[in-house]
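[stage:ingest] chain + small molecule (flavin-adenine dinucleotide)
[stage:ingest] validated
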Amino acid sequence: MLNDYDYLILGGGLSGLHLALSLEKDPFFKEKKIAVIEASSKQTNDRTWCFWENESGPYPHLVSHSWPEIIFKSPYYSDTIALAPYHYKKIEGAAFYAFAKAQLNCDQIQAKVEAIIDHDTAVEVITDKGTYTAKKVFSSILDPKILTDQTQQQYLKQHFIGWFIKTDTPVFDPTQATFMDFSIPQKGNCRFMYVLPTSQTEALFEYTLFSKDLLEEADYETAIQAYLNDIGISQYHIVAKEKGNIPMTSYNFAQHNTKNIIHIGSAGGWTKASTGFTFTHTLKKTEALLDFLKQHDDLRRFRRKNRFWWYDLVFVDVLYRKNWLGARIFATLFQKNPIDRIFRFLNDESSFKEELAIMWSLPKTEFIRAAFHRIGALFR
Ligand SMILES: Cc1cc2nc3c(=O)[nH]c(=O)nc-3n(C[C@H](O)[C@H](O)[C@H](O)COP(=O)(O)OP(=O)(O)OC[C@H]3O[C@@H](n4cnc5c(N)ncnc54)[C@H](O)[C@@H]3O)c2cc1C
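[stage:predict] done
[stage:export] tokens:
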């Protein structure tokens, strides 16, 4: 049948396109009939992904900038940190979408998915352009209602607006990214500025919160303006803007998987709950998913909770209940731990010994209280 596939990938963003590219690269899947269904044309640069790496990943040719140093600033501790052997790297969403679309041989269907029904022997995907069927479905479509309507797990948002600005005179150092600058009014929250200079005259300024509630758009923009003013930048043009609202939660996304439908990307819980970083986790989870598909049929068996899930749970718990502690917690983390240990920890790659060192460095009362408070979640 024309509309019948082995694998249907829903959503052609980061996780959907990376999964499609990975499946096509792996000879094990060469007989599979695959399609990606994406609602939008994906021609705009709707986001930029940054991530740290100590070696080359799968898309070195798409990296548009890389920083050997990061700056951390707060009222408690500030430093410029050399990242070697790591680099902090950037890929533009638009470059990734264009590359993936040109590279892929599978069907690429522009349609809006309206319903996904697992009939046990096959999955039916109803779109505004027709109905498709598949043996297995990989969905990166996140329904925000599953998070807002649940009370199982605490749910914070990483929300931000960013301005890409250009100045008339050289003012930036493009070798240093400001990872977190907490020296801005916290207003009872965890608020920081994230600055990515890509040349002496170009930079992205992102006013970011890890908190429960979104702000009015004007609040983010006024804060960026005030920050630029404080650092003495008054002559600039805004070249582009981006905004985001990334879920930070240990919610069990996998409960929505069925035998033949699995959720991937942020919709599958592949966003690191404590930081919102998703890019590296998507690469790693995709690799694990391909291995899994070679051996298993029932997609419900893919996800296992591990100790990193639990660390994130505790971290989000602390930040959820005492949001104003964010600046102090991150300052302590960066002050008391070498950057390679922090990066390994945030990539879920650290050893237990390193994790103990990190936990020992954090404000103990809050974390011990949260750990006991959330211990029951281990069994949910
Ligand atoms: C502005 C921004 C900046 C970010 N920066 C970083 C960063 O620097 N580092 C990092 O690690 N993470 C970052 N993230 C978080 C995360 O990496 C991205 O959100 C990432 O794109 C998530 O991948 P995904 O595949 O889960 O979702 P997406 O990339 O959003 O893909 C989902 C796709 O599904 C499509 N879709 C939705 N509904 C339907 C429907 N009904 N029918 C068909 N298609 C549909 C969407 O159009 C979209 O293309 C950022 C997020 C944003 C928003």
